[in-house]
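Posting this for the archive.
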Amino acid sequence: MSTADQINLAHAAIAARTAGANPHQDSRLAKLARRVPPDAWKYLLVLTDGVLILIGFLGAYYLRYQLQWFRSVDPAFQLSLWAYAPFALVLVIVSLFSLRFSGVYPYRYGRNLVEEVYLIGTAATASVVVLIAFNLIFSQLLYSRLIFLYTAILVTILLGISRFIITLGREHLRHYGIGVVRVLLVGAGDVGRMVMRTVAARPDLGYQLVGFIDDDPNKGNNDIGRFKALGSIGNVAQILEKGSVDRVIVCLPWQSHRTIQRLLRTCEQFSVRAQVVPDFFQLTKNQLAVEELNGIPLISTREVSIQGWNLILKRISDLILTVCFSLLALPLVALIALAIRLDSPGPLFYSQTRVGRNGKLFQCHKFRSMVQGAHELLHTVADLNQASGPLFKVRDDPRQTRVGRILRRYSLDELPQLYNVFLGEMSLIGPRPNLPQEVAHYHEWHKKRLSASPGMTGLWQVSGRSELTFDEMVLLDIYYIENWSLALDFGILLRSIPAVLRGRGAY
């Protein structure tokens, strides 16, 4: 089949997909779940934890008296399960109080699993220590000391597994609209976009932005990615009346305090919770430095996170990982080069001018994935563009070669960019580099993504890749720049592995 025939087929396929698209609607399960009082989920979690604590104790009893790990039990000192019944009852009560005072309750969605398990382990240990003390002071029975140790370990493991299951289950149920907080955003300025990029970057928090309103017609009437513009602030009552909003987040400047007061009263009338983001929070937590002058708090600004020593630390980690990845990828690179050579005529590599950190131009290298002379065929596929904003993306681009289609699906065409990383033109993690003609169409707030080195992978690549709109990509890139840490980089690297293997959104 010729390239021209493939282009015609691509036109037909895109038209069919567009005709069959259906808007997302809340499922019946989601509507049913919202009828359940919020406190019911909290009580259910406490009840489940109580059952797991009891199971942990039963497991400890079995390990101690049935399996007799580490030390055998003299039959004369073996206590029946009923003898431990008061201990088990007090254990559940004391443990639940300990979990509360350790910060495990109320359960916070989005909290790091390691942090959650640490808090649970601390609470379980504290509970067992209290029970040991009570046993020594008040009890006439000599309980086994090992059973206390087993109990603390098993309770920590069981509650940790339950939190892991909750995390996975929440992600699954979120697809049905269950456990999602539907938010209306008031204000689409700097503070509003800060909330947007946090919602986009942290889906684990369970927030779904149904839309935003703003009295500025340039903001209130123009969508930002998937976030819908719903007009002016005067529409808030009409929107809340539909019952599709669970919470309103107000991001207006401090001069609008009268408008904020009216919004709060309107939300109260519709029994919708309202929250106000203070105006100075347009500076994110990583840009604020708090000092003290004899008890007087002083707030000042500090540099964006990827600067100074942080930039040096990021560069060192890039060099170390790039050398390791390059050595491991050498056999794969040789196979890809051979496959390209056998598949179609043309060079192995394709270099293109891209925009790097602070607008500096550089040559970005990739394995060739299209037919030779693909640039001259660009006008034939110009109307197939499926990307938003200044980007140009075509799913199943007919100019791709057979090998190129595989390379793009699994992002293997980008392996030569390890050389760009080694030269310091790119980083392993960061915003994707755009073409100069694409950057020329940036809005002013888009340009902040140029303050960091472009990366081979990044936050938006592991959050949906090409299925996201351009504005969403920029929101995620800016969130990454403002919240950078080595832990965030390694987390994105780990998430990149399943994202690449799935090949979803790669084209």
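Residues 309-502 form one domain. The chain has three domains: 32-174, 181-282, 309-502.
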